[in-house]
């Protein structure tokens, strides 16, 4: 760098310089040496230039179409869950792949356009710069601005209006492809829907809440039965008539020291034992109960000697039925299933972050990050000898949320 370039410039001197002069001065002040520079298309109206520009425009157009397709799929495609054999099942199954395909293509196309533009249109240049520390002076800032202007001019984008428009459109739409899916996360967590076997959509409820509507709810054991596939004249469909997924549980179904995961099984959805009817179709409803995010409950039969030592929580003294205790399976830390019951110590373990709860002390946390006891479901046995919910949980199930007091 010459000493001439390094000297202090007055504001008048800087204002008097053209953009080219400021850009040149900027490279000198930055210790940048342009070692090599070559225009891609020195001759005006070179057909090769048109070809290169067309290549970039094609990718930008593909990117725009893919981004619009993404937004169209995201907003209008039928996304609601459909069971196998149900009308619209195929459209539902390709919803997520279509989102991935269109968003990927739009971002890839934009990337391809930028790479092609830099590779085929922007002048080739090799510049070398020596690095140095220190804050930027007024002249540095002004010259940097000039350099950016110079880059804009040398990129020739300024005179390629169609390309500018396409690039702007593709950039905005690619941004939307990234931002639009976040819209799906904006929900009102307190918007009530119909109360059914999955709750009413709010965090206060679960499938067990139906009890408050006067519905008798059995403790249902998951048999793992699956609907059968049938192929007939009308094509393949899944036969759910006569298939029961949940069956009622009796106390004698569990050995001492055993644990069973149970789900709410409302009386209208029962299809087992003496009420079994091969024509009844309750499979769907029972599967919804299984999928209820706050429905899973651990039914534990303590050994009698241990049950004698059990400490009941105030207000929950009659929630158990003899040696049988039912605790929510949803961890009060951040909601994993507390799947492990250790019969020797009567501890319930959450495998996510190792919280442990004491089944002998109303599900109280005794180790790990969980700070709240597992909610206990009040249970009893009905006149036919089946275990049923005596009521709903008296507190919300699962992790903490702002409005929760206990
Ligand atoms: S979710 Fe259970 S310990 Fe974290």
In short:
With 406 residues, the chain is of the alpha+beta class. 33% of the residues lie in helices and 17% in strands. The strands form five sheets. A five-stranded antiparallel sheet has the order 6-3-7-8-9. Strands 10-11-12-13 form a four-stranded antiparallel sheet, with no helix packed on it.
Tally the beta strands: 15
Distance between the termini: 71 Å
- Rg, nearest Å: 34 Å
Number of domains: 2
Helix % is 25-40%
Shape: elongated
Q: Segments where pLDDT lies below 50 for 5+ residues? A: none
Class inferred from helices and paired strands: alpha+beta
Report strand order across the widest sheet.
6-3-7-8-9
Strand content: 15-25%
**Biggest sheet, in brief?**
5 strands, antiparallel
Quote the average pLDDT: 89
List the total number of helices: 10
Bound molecules: FE2/S2 (inorganic) cluster
Helix and strand run: HHHEHHHEHHEEEEEHEHEEEEEEE
Transmembrane segments: 56-77, 97-118, 166-186
Keywords: 2Fe-2S, Cell membrane, Disulfide bond, Electron transport, Iron, Iron-sulfur, Membrane, Metal-binding, Oxidoreductase, Respiratory chain, Transmembrane, Transmembrane helix, Transport
InterPro entries: QcrA_N (IPR045603), Rieske_2Fe-2S (IPR017941), Rieske_2Fe-2S_sf (IPR036922), Rieske_Fe-S_prot (IPR014349)
Pfam families: QcrA_N (PF19297), Rieske (PF00355)
Describe the secondary structure blueprint for this structure.
Elements (H helix, E strand, L loop, with lengths): L2 H4 L4 H6 L2 H11 L2 E7 L8 H30 L12 H5 L1 H26 L3 E6 L8 H18 L5 H19 L37 E6 L5 E5 L2 E5 L6 E3 L10 E8 L16 H9 L5 E5 L2 H4 L16 E5 L11 E3 L4 E3 L6 E3 L5 E4 L11 E3 L5 E3 L17
Antiparallel strand pairs: 1-2, 3-6, 3-7, 4-5, 7-8, 8-9, 10-11, 11-12, 12-13, 14-15
Helix pairs in contact: 3-7, 4-6, 4-8, 6-8
The site of FE2/S2 (inorganic) cluster (FES) has 12 residues, from loops.
